[in-house]
Design brief:
heterodimer; A: alpha/beta; Rossmann fold; 3-stranded antiparallel sheet; globular; B: mainly alpha; 14 helices; about 0% strand
Chain lengths: ~270, ~260
């Protein structure tokens, strides 16, 4: 279903020394550093799996999601998702996927959520019958009934995340990307999101790729874990491969991160 | 898929308009603010003409006509191409990633992303200036004159839209604000109040060939005022639409650059 082989992605980042003088010279002549976000990343994911991408900040998780979802072209390496080359076949491929960014919204801020859904129906050309069926299913599962008539700006974070999930599933995608879907949510909402994702995967066989820093998400959802660090795949296994006796999962994870060569615990 | 393009745009439009209706006081204040800026520009022109009865053969009424048309061209472009106007923000806030995640043309989506209804304030002003000048000048209206005026509005809105797109395209290469481009955009509106030949031949040539701005302002204005009668003048403004092509192409190059650099 998803195949990534030897994918490399480099960003050019403007370098600027601190101080007013340096800032002034940067106006005329800019130096660039090359940052290697992905450095030969390879993995395969089968249809119907739930896979969690783990790794410290700056490890390359978001870049991997952006490449898999077709936002960015890789510099080199092969990427194939559901028979498409994501960035090149953007127009056809994006019909097959749903993407939720935990930190951003795709809903119109000032109109009722249901109206945003109506626009999405037009954007994806979802036939009326399919749209109605999906919407009523999602309304049921995510308890959206009251929310559909509320403008997005009046929703709590947890309510909004439920609406975001529904928004990205109205066109029945085969693959769902969740980039930190539980960030900032309270316990009740987290459980609701996890429960929903689980049901979605079991009933619709939707392939789900998840990034998160919340180990409980991983524990509840994914049998398989891909650990990324410095743009490389460090581990392809289960949580059991990370867990050590007598430690919490978070502690084990810290141990693991510290074992990554050159990792200093700071964001890059 | 393409079949629904127009319908989709209408849908975007209705959501945008409903969104801006949510903030009534902000909407009216923006309109009022725009009205005041326009009045101050107009006063500048009027004071100028208290000193000099005419500028290069153009009277006050001629200049008000010209300024009114430019005002309309500018406001219409800002209203419907607002997405390109605020494009640096779209990129910075990551909204552009969302555009790439949808199975629709990027340009259609950027146009759809925002429709700035409050520009109606400027449009009303432009219409008032236009009507005032036309009443005073007492033009003899015939079909070709009406056509000239309509074409000036179409062509001019096109040129300003193209400049917006050009500025948006440059956002892909540098994320910092490009004040340079404002010279062409806001600058064009400011010096566009006066018929472009008053700035000298070289400038007129630049505005004819490079950024085809004189094609929607100076030349058709001469026709409108009855100073020249060449047959092609009423159609000249539409020719200015060629400028959209390089701007859209540059935008496409920018998209490609963005997707491979990911800045």
């Amino acid at each position: 279903m998803i195949h990534m082989q030897n994918v490399v992605k480099t960003y050019r980042v403007a370098r600027r020394d601190s101080g007013a003088k340096a800032a002034f010279f940067a106006l005329f002549h800019r130096k660039y550093d090359l940052v290697r976000a992905l450095d030969g990343l390879s993995f395969d994911i089968d249809a119907g799996e739930i896979v969690a991408l783990l790794g410290p900040n700056g490890a390359g998780k978001s870049t991997a999601i952006k490449i898999l979802s077709g936002i960015l072209y890789p510099d080199s390496g092969a990427v194939e998702c559901g028979g498409f080359s994501p960035a090149r076949d953007r127009m056809r491929y994006t019909r097959e996927i749903g993407v939720v960014f935990g930190q951003r919204t795709q809903l119109y801020w000032d109109v009722p959520v249901g109206d945003s859904y109506g626009l999405l129906q037009d954007i994806y050309d979802v036939p009326e019958a399919e749209f109605k069926r999906n919407l009523s299913e999602l309304t049921e599962l995510l308890d959206l009934k009251e929310l559909l008539r509320t403008p997005a700006r009046q929703l709590s974070l947890g309510q909004r995340m439920r609406c975001e999930l529904a928004a990205s599933l109205l066109h029945s995608p085969r693959i769902l990307f969740l980039d930190e879907p539980t960030i900032g949510l309270d316990a009740v909402s987290k459980l609701a999101v996890r429960q929903f994702v689980k049901v979605l995967n079991e009933e619709k066989k939707t392939t789900i790729i998840l990034t998160t820093h919340d180990m409980q998400d991983v524990e509840a959802l994914s049998r398989r874990v891909l650990m990324i660090g410095k743009g490389k795949l460090l581990l392809d296994g289960t949580l059991q491969d990370i867990r050590r006796d007598g430690e919490s999962l978070d502690e084990s994870l810290v141990d693991f991160y510290q074992g990554i060569e050159g990792f200093d615990g700071k964001e890059e | 898929m393409k079949r629904h393009g127009f319908r989709l745009y209408r849908h975007y439009l209705s959501l945008s308009i409903r969104s801006s209706m949510q903030y009534k006081s902000s909407f009216w204040l923006t309109m009022l603010g725009q009205a005041l800026t326009t009045i101050s520009t107009l006063l500048g022109v009027i004071f100028m003409f208290q000193r000099f009865p005419e500028v290069k053969g153009f009277t006050l009424d001629d200049v008000i006509l010209c300024a009114g048309i430019v005002q309309l061209q500018f406001a219409l472009a800002e209203m419907w191409a607002r997405g390109f106007d605020r494009f640096s923000q779209i990129v910075r806030l990551g909204e552009y990633d969302r555009i790439l995640l949808r199975p629709r043309g990027k340009i259609l989506q950027v146009f759809g992303s925002q429709f700035e209804l409050s520009r109606i304030g400027r449009i009303i002003q432009g219409v008032l200036m236009l009507v005032y000048a036309l009443v005073r000048i007492r033009l003899r209206w015939d079909f070709l004159r009406v056509l000239t005026l309509v074409n000036m509005l179409i062509g001019g809105t096109g040129v300003f839209t193209a400049i917006c797109i050009l500025r948006a395209a440059l956002c892909f290469f540098t994320l910092e604000g490009l004040e340079v481009m404002n010279i062409f955009f806001d600058g064009a509106r400011e010096h566009g109040k006066y018929p472009l030949n008053i700035y000298g031949d070289k400038f007129l040539l630049f505005c004819t060939v490079a950024i085809p701005y004189a094609l929607v302002q100076y030349y058709p204005l001469l026709y409108l005022l009855g100073r020249r009668a060449d047959w092609f003048l009423p159609f000249l403004p539409l020719l200015a639409l060629w400028f959209l092509i390089p701007c859209l192409l540059l935008f496409r190059v920018g998209v490609r650059h963005y997707q491979s650099s990911g800045s």
